[in-house]
Design a protein that fits this description.
The protein is α/β, with parallel strands linked by helices. The protein contains 11 helices and 16 strands. The protein folds into 2 domains: about 1-20 and about 35-205 and about 355-370, 2-Layer Sandwich (Nucleotidyltransferase, domain 5), CATH 3.30.420.40; about 215-350, ATPase, nucleotide binding domain (Nucleotidyltransferase, domain 5, 2-Layer Sandwich). Helices cover about 35% and strands about 25% of the residues. The strands form 4 sheets. A 6-stranded mixed β-sheet has the order 1-4-3-2-10-11. The radius of gyration is 21 Å and the shape is globular. The chain binds adenosine-5'-triphosphate (ATP) and magnesium ion.
């Protein structure tokens, strides 16, 4: 689904926002930052958020910013020429495979709803799902439906990459990264994977000189990056986020994870008293997730030898779909206040547009790459 982004979720205009972040040619405006590092929005570069549940693409067309979103999902239906014709007529993307049609992207959810089935996902916990043998083909097909070949060969493109999962010796994203890079390079892009937590920093912390903690709470993972003056100091991920909350709350009350997800997305309010057993379970697992996240962050900060002595308080920015329920920010702030957090935090704030933060950060990183300014990450 393509959308022209003339307004972000809080009503601010992203065009103004990005232009104010950039110095016009020849101007000294905005060059007081410690690194003098600002991102010039450009036409051509592309940013792609490759998420476990959604793929989001972000680029500039003329004066407007455009985002495309597709579910990172598939649904198998029996193959027939008639079905393919109807899918083509309705602009629903699919691949033929072994006598089946794999409907990919948003169309997968439509079919799952009609047949009361479950969508399949090519990714799990932030990377290609090793248990899904068609994973690369499915994700390639979704990307094909969203990203054309560039007008200029070698155009800059950045895609999001998960940070290493803390405590997981088996986490390895090399295959995932290689498959994605190939996919984009074969289209004619100069493609690079950049850490998801760092993309929150690029997207949201220009006014803070890119010093702060960026957090993206997605479906498979929560990604975290602590950056100081644009240098990523710590990044990691935690395999406890939206999918974990859905399945744990569902198991606790004997529900289907899919139904739990729908209720969570439509009704959950983390600052109101829970009215049902399911709501109570969601509150409990949300709290557990935030406690774990802050605990991992404290441990990572205390283990690292690179943490600079930060003389002033820095912000935390929260993004991603799992951060969306009402009261998430307040809960996060309360749990942080009760923890022995080793760095002074000026504020905990929501990203401007939590579902687009990563794709926008990737787009800005692609603009920096194009200008040859990618040494910092
Ligand atoms: N309004 C909402 N309220 C609560 N949860 C939501 C809402 N909208 C989406 N989510 C949840 O957010 C998660 C998806 O978030 P997001 O799109 O940021 O993840 P992703 O980038 O695809 O995954 P990851 O970063 O883990 O690879 C899912 O668990 C989904 O159920
Ligand atoms: Mg994500």
């Amino acid at each position: 689904m393509a959308e022209e982004e003339t307004e972000m979720e809080n009503g601010e205009n992203p065009v103004d926002d990005l232009y104010s972040a950039a110095s016009p040619p020849g101007s000294t405006q905005g060059q007081q930052s410690a690194q003098g590092r600002h991102v010039e929005p450009l036409e051509g570069p592309r940013g792609i958020d490759i998420g476990t549940s959604r793929i989001v693409e972000y680029h500039k067309e003329g004066l407007k910013f455009v985002k495309n979103t597709q579910l990172n999902a598939f649904f198998a239906v029996p193959d027939s020429g008639f079905t393919r014709r109807i899918l083509d007529q309705n602009d629903i993307h699919y691949k033929q495979e072994n006598g089946k049609i794999l409907v990919v992207g948003d169309g997968a959810q439509t079919f799952a709803n009609i047949t009361n089935g479950e969508i399949g996902r090519p990714m799990a916990s932030g990377i290609l799902n090793p248990k899904e043998k068609h994973a690369s083909m499915i994700i390639g097909s979704i990307i094909d439906s969203m990203v054309d070949r560039p007008d200029d060969l070698g155009e800059s493109l950045v895609y999001s990459m998960p940070g290493p999962i803390r405590g997981s010796a088996s986490f390895n994203s090399v295959f995932h990264e290689g498959i994605l890079r190939n996919q984009f390079v074969s289209k004619g892009y100069m493609a690079k994977g950049v850490n998801e937590g760092y993309l929150v920093i690029l997207s949201e912390m220009e006014k803070d000189d890119y010093s702060g903690i960026g957090i993206s709470c997605g479906a498979g993972l929560a990604n975290v990056c602590f950056s100081y003056l644009s240098v990523p100091v710590i990044d990691f991920s935690m395999a406890k986020s939206g999918d974990y909350i859905d399945s744990a709350a569902a198991a606790a009350v004997g529900e289907h994870a899919n139904r739990v997800r729908v209720i969570k997305e439509e009704e959950l309010n983390l600052v109101a008293d829970p009215k049902t057993r399911l709501e109570r379970a969601l509150h409990i697992y949300y709290e557990e997730m935030i406690v774990s996240l802050i605990g991992h962050l404290i441990d990572a900060l205390s283990e690292s030898e690179n943490v600079p002595k930060v003389s002033h308080a820095i912000p935390i920015v929260l993004s991603g779909g799992t951060a969306l329920p009402k009261g998430f920010r307040e809960n996060f702030e309360n749990i942080l206040r009760d923890s022995q957090f080793p760095i002074n935090i000026s504020e905990v704030k929501m990203a401007e547009s939590p579902l687009t933060t990563i794709a926008k950060g990737a787009y800005l990183a692609a603009c920096l790459n194009k200008e040859g300014e990618d040494e910092g990450y």
